[in-house]
Amino acid sequence: MRRKITAWWTATPDANIGMPTGLVTRRSVIDEDNKPWKRATGSQTMESLTTIFGPLPETLSQTTWSGGKQTIFVYNPEAVNSAHSYGAFVDGRNDGGYIAVPPSHVVEGDRSGTYAWNADPFTTPLAAMPDWLVDADAAARTCPRARRRAAPLGRTAGGITRPAGPMLSSAAWARARATTPPLA
């Protein structure tokens, strides 16, 4: 197996790493999309939400390639997996979803960036997701664009199948394991 993984990474050294979210990795994620050139301002939405409901607890997070932020919590089966689930440009990633993890690198047109952990992923404890993020109505009452309908495993709330598991090669899993903390 080691030879096979080494061969994959030799053949595709610039491959990105996807980490499933949800029960399979015991992680639920809030994803703030920040892409000013697309007018995506998830950090502004999250700032509004935390002003109303209170700050997020200290937990592991990473900066995305475009300057966004993904905040990683211990798995909560009630958390959602859909785009804009917490308001404009603030997505939930849970059962059936995935996130890219460091050192993934993205190029989009003339822009590029690399994912980076904001703390040591091996020693930073994961916090529980605050109740207000799990409350199916709290964000929707505050952010009318929030989509709160939970999606079945492997599907987004919009109904598009996202089979993250098959998209991840064994090499990606090995590389993710090398940069992702062990399950709690």
CATH architecture: 2-Layer Sandwich
CATH top level is: Alpha Beta
Tell me the domain tally: 1
Query: Biggest β-sheet: count, sense, barrel?
Result: 5 strands, antiparallel
Number of strands: 11
Query: Mean of residue pLDDT?
Result: 80
Radius of gyration: 16 Å
Give the % helix. 10-25%
Strand content: 15-25%
Strand order in space, largest sheet: 7-2-6-5-11
* Element-level helix/strand string: HEEEEHEEEEEEEHHHH
State the CATH topology.
Answer: Prim-pol fold
Task: Output the number of helix runs.
Answer: 6
Tell me the span between the first and last alpha carbons.
26 Å
Helices and strands: which structural class? alpha+beta
> Which ranges are low-confidence, i.e. pLDDT below 50, for 5 or more consecutive residues?
147-177
Shape: globular
Key traits:
two-stranded antiparallel sheet, 6 helices, 24% helix, 11 strands, 184 residues, globular, Prim-pol fold, five-stranded antiparallel sheet, single chain, alpha+beta
How does this model look, in words?
This protein has one domain (2-179): Prim-pol fold (2-Layer Sandwich). The longest helix is centred in the N-terminal third of the chain and has 12 residues, at 42-53. Residues 147-177 have low confidence and may be disordered. The protein is α+β, with helices and mostly antiparallel strands and 184 residues long. Helices cover 24% and strands 22% of the residues.
